[in-house]
Amino acid sequence: MSESFGVYVNESHGALHTGEGAQVNISLALAATSDRLRHKAGPKLLSITDRDGNWLDQRFVAPGGMQRARTLLQANSLVLLSAPPGSGRRACALKLLHELADGSGGLYELPDTEDDSGSVLDTDEVGEGDRLVLDLSAVDEARYLALQNHLLAFRAGLVERGARLAVVLPQHHGYLQRVELKSYTAELTRPSSRDVLSRYLQLDNIRPTPAELSVQSLNNHVARIPLREVAELADRIRTLRDRGTPGGFPSWRDQAVKRVADRSAEVAADLAAHDSGRRRALLLALALFHASSPGTVLRAASALLSTLSHPPDERPRLEQVDLNRELTDLGAETGADGLVRFRTHNYDQAVRDHFWTYFPDLAEQLRRWVHECLARPGIREDDHGPAIERFAEQCLKAGRPEDLIRLADSWTGRHGQVRLIPDAAQALSLGLAHERHGQRFRRQIYEWSLTASLSQNLKQALVLVCSETMRQSHPHQALVRLHHLDRGADGRVADTARTALLSLALDDDRMYRLLLQRIRRSMREPDGGRDLGLFLALTQSVRLLASREVRAGLAAGWGAVFEQLPPQQWRPYAAQWFTAVEAGSGPERLLDVLVDGCRGEAAALGGLYQAAHNWGRSRPSGTGHRPTITGLLLQKINIAQGVDSLVSAV
């Protein structure tokens, strides 16, 4: 296991403003985006860090087949998990790996896209004792077949390093599984939904009796929904309890189930009665902008009619029915807070489901409608987040992830507006968090990150999506995309791209090693100049020097810096290393890396010694071991040059 030192020297940087527009607008947009992604971007995939182990332990209910999965993983270093979607298969993989934590390695997710890092099944990137998860639940046939070809060879590398891998299989491609992998496969059955609900309720100090949990309406509901929605039901029950809703658990239970009851038959009947285009437009506008002001609903309905080229009502406005009457006829009412809602719980959901299911030919127009609604002034920004979440739910449910991708692109393209960055970022984050379509969004963000002509607003949205959303479940892929965005950054996006990339790399030793490897490969390329600055920023964290691979990467980096940058640019960073040596952080290895980076070049070695001499003179008198450090460095330089003294060279 490689060692890690605790010295970290950081610089403070002021905000740069080299792009277009007012900097305050960008700052406000970035703050709004971060807030939206952290709190309003919809359901998140389970995080993969060890920090989440206790959270998972408290809530996990074992599925059938768990013991076989545990036995296979312990005996073979590999287990393949086969289970239906919505049965907690990813949580099971993480639980198995959390149980094996012994402090010798980390818990990581392998990428589900190739990107530019070679094969995802690369044993060179596996550390001693690592615990790995590979989620293949959404891969296509070709990729599933290709990965299986390398899985057994990868397993041999896992055994060598004492590492373990849990793979979530794509059940819809079960017929493609290779025969030799069957013996590593555990078939999982869904755990009791009632037990899952009970576990979540107990953690919120809600303890219903067995009889209160056995009512038929509850059992029917939880049996047909994914386990993540069972957890959401428990949260709704908790919310009703916290609001002081009378009647105890039976009342909270019934109201929570009622709020998600299936209203599809009611909506179908009502739509048959509401046969005018205007009424149907109002119905869908209210369903998408539910709990909004009457004015917002009217503007959205008018925009929909315009998008669909619906002929206007030629009658004078005062001869038409007023908005209150129209909304009342649709089963809606305006509350004391001035916001319009349907009187029937979950009716808005059923309306959206109906339109996306039974008007599939309108999908393109509905995307353009949402774009226009939010791109034009008039709809409050507080209404944007909920509307995007509802729209994203329908697109992803209907198998149309491209609608979200195109929407994000249109909001942040050449004619996009800074204020729409949060909307674009939220749309992409919702796609990333989707179990079935998340891979499509990771691939699209990768392709965008390579596009030099990408608009600044879209780049900014991608940086925030990678740093706030993707890093939680797919940090490796987030790092690759942030690195490409950093290399192509300019103007106002440069600071946030660099900050996000360094934050990810310095927060995790494996991400630090991966970024160092990438920099080592890229900074000698014709367009690798920006990576020199990234490398110097990365050297502010002195860590993992016991790793031969890390030392080689650092030496290569310093070599490129000494060769390509003037001394005034790298001396402050070298001085930070001398200070770290003075603090006792692996002096031999720190100095070896610097000397190795000079590659025996007399001029580079002389410049390095001069930097150490200047550093020593700048230190307060009586501080540390300045003569010892410069003397030790001189000895290493002499050895590197094969001479007794370097006095004449400086």
Provide structural commentary:
There is one protein chain. α19 crosses α20 and α21 runs antiparallel to α22. This protein has a 5-stranded parallel sheet, sandwiched between helices. The chain has a two-stranded antiparallel sheet with strand order 1-9. Strands 7-8 form a two-stranded antiparallel sheet. It folds into 4 domains: 147 residues; 126 residues, P-loop containing nucleotide triphosphate hydrolases (Rossmann fold, 3-Layer(aba) Sandwich); 66 residues, no CATH class; 116 residues. The N terminus and C terminus are likely disordered. 59% of the residues lie in helices and 5% in strands. It contains 30 helices and 9 strands. The two termini are 39 Å apart. With 650 residues, it is mainly alpha-helical.
Task: Report the biggest beta sheet as strand number plus sense, adding barrel if it closes.
Answer: 5 strands, parallel
- The general outline is globular
Taking Cα atoms only, what radius of gyration do you get, to the nearest Å? 29 Å
Number of strands: 9
Indicate the low-confidence ranges by residue numbers.
1-24, 645-650
Tally of DSSP helical segments: 30
Distance between the termini: 39 Å
Overall SS class: mainly alpha
- Helix fraction? 55-70%
Mean pLDDT: 85
Strand order of the largest sheet: 3-4-5-2-6
Number of domains: 4
Beta percentage is: under 5%
